[in-house]
Amino acid sequence: MNILGINAYHANASAALLCDGKLVAAVEEERLNRVKYAAGFPVKAIRYCLKAAGITLADVHHIAIPRDPWARIGTKLLYALRMPQFALERRRAWASFADVPTTLAQSLDTDPQRVRARFHRVEHHRAHLASAFFVSPFDRAALLSADGLGDFASTMWGTGEGGRMCIQGSIAFPHSLGMFYTALTQYLGFWKLGDEYKVMGLAAYGEPAYLDEFRRIVVNHDSGFRLGLEYFSHHQNGPEMSWREADKTPVLGRLFSDYLEKRLGPARAPEAPLEQRHKNIAASLQARLEEVLIHKIGAVYGQTGQKALCLAGGVAFNCVANAKIFDGVPFERIFVQPAAGDAGLSLGAAFYVWHQVLGNPRSFEMRHASWGPAYDAPEIRSAMQERRLSEGGFVISELPDEEIIRATARHIADGDIVGWFSGRAEWGPRALGNRSILADPRRAEMKERLNRRIKHRESFRPFAPSILSESAGDFFEKSHPSPFMTFAYPLRPNKRDALPAATHVDATCRLQTVDREANPRFWRLISEFGKLTGTPAVVNTSFNDNEPIVCAPDEAIDCFLRTHMDVLAIGNYLICKPRSAAPAGSAETVSGRV
Ligand SMILES: [Fe+2]
């Protein structure tokens, strides 16, 4: 039985396909159409998933859409009366959803008569919860989803057991931890979707000097929280989410009120310098998020009595808060799925249908994130030939697996910056060893070099290490698995200086623990680097330069040529730039044939 999950007309459009209850493929549309946070109809992602399974649309039995227009219909109607513009936008969105079957058939050139799949609508946060629990290692767990807004709710919790979830409560619009964090992110001058990461990084440079004020901005309430609405504007006009027509990139309107500026001072303009005041506000924001989240999770622990927790929704990407849950609530294990944000809704909706609607037992666990497209040697060769690499002075070798791993480890140990393209593209926003840029974490200067030569990120944002699972406990104060880079742990005092290029200013690292069975090729690479240097960890940052993470070989080669990367290991090819290769920029400077 084939179930297709589709997250459409929403930020992070994506598709996921299950065959007999096992995930076969999952990918975000942005990887394929190259538009960051792409939000339209994910036709390329759907095409890829069907191709990966070797089926057509006519072979799909169920289609799961993670949105339910009827959820909280009373609240929605109430707000529709107060916010007519917002209501109009919602109506337009619902109309798009009503047309999904037709759009699907048309986009895939399929006769609508041949589409026999049954359509299911799954409420946003139920899809989030399902995306974590049904692929987790746990048979029983407490569940919590928290984000900005979805189907008029921001938070939902409950329990999962086997193939069933039981919802125990939710928090409705306008009270939302996601909106809270995004509003303050905007206030601090970061307006792009996904900029919350930057503020989380900035927080470590400040002191929570404004915490008292922040305790009025978000108030603990019974077993949940409420926003001090005078600090916000989204409850008056609705969160203005619009899609830029040209490329369907989502744009979010201003969420904070004039009152917030009156209390905290003027908002920072995007290009203005970052002052200590801004850093202290970021620290206060992060501290308050942690307080409220841990209060809520403590209540969920008390209510459910479970030992394991599954977290989902955009707030679950706050790796700093995630790690602190262990200190504040006695959960023994926490699982965060790699696409915890809205991309994961397609996966969650599909699993919801398989288990909760169709009543099937559990038979799948997500142990790695390798669910996207892979490319074979002829495809890689053809991309290399198109870019005419061999005439630019590049040294190109085709090597067996063990040799390319050894050679790549040696390059990293020698201080080179290496593009590592291996196997299937990762599901979720993190590079986890398949589309990664790797470097030596022992070299303090590497952070500045990576930024100057390739990433061009704000200097306050840390890079992350990937470390062998079995060595994590030697370096970090916690050793709970973090296979998808969703936890930030403090380094042990005796290892404070061990990974300077991947350590944040507060001596924590947002680490990936690499498991031998889950990602054997990446594990072997880090292991080889460990043999050479005594440090079983590498700096791992996403393979891109202000674009979605590369997916196909030509995108990886273009990024390699455009930036100052030294080496590209792509499949079984090792490509080294000539040492003097200045901005190895264009096809003209490297013309030739492989
Ligand atoms: Fe969401």
Fold and architecture overview:
With 594 residues, the chain is of the alpha/beta class. It has a nine-stranded mixed sheet with strand order 15-23-22-16-17-21-18-20-19, with helices on both faces. A five-stranded mixed sheet has the order 3-2-1-4-5. Strands 8-7-6-13-14 form a five-stranded mixed sheet, sandwiched between helices. Helix 6 packs across helix 14, helix 8 packs across helix 12 (276-304) and helix 12 (276-304) packs across helix 13 (319-328). The radius of gyration is 23 Å and the shape is globular. The two termini are 44 Å apart. Residues 582-594 have low confidence and may be disordered. Fe (ii) ion binds next to helix 6 and strand 6.
List keywords for this structure.
single chain, binds fe (ii) ion, 23 strands, alpha/beta
Structural category is alpha/beta
Number of helices: 20
Describe the global form. globular
Bound molecules: fe (ii) ion
Mean pLDDT, as a whole number? Answer: 91
- Share of residues in helices: 25-40%
CA-CA gap between termini: 44 Å
Concise synopsis of the structure shown:
With 594 residues, the chain is an alpha/beta fold. It is 35% helix and 20% strand. The protein has a nine-stranded mixed beta sheet, sandwiched between helices. It has a five-stranded mixed beta sheet with strand order 3-2-1-4-5. A five-stranded mixed beta sheet has the order 8-7-6-13-14, sandwiched between helices.
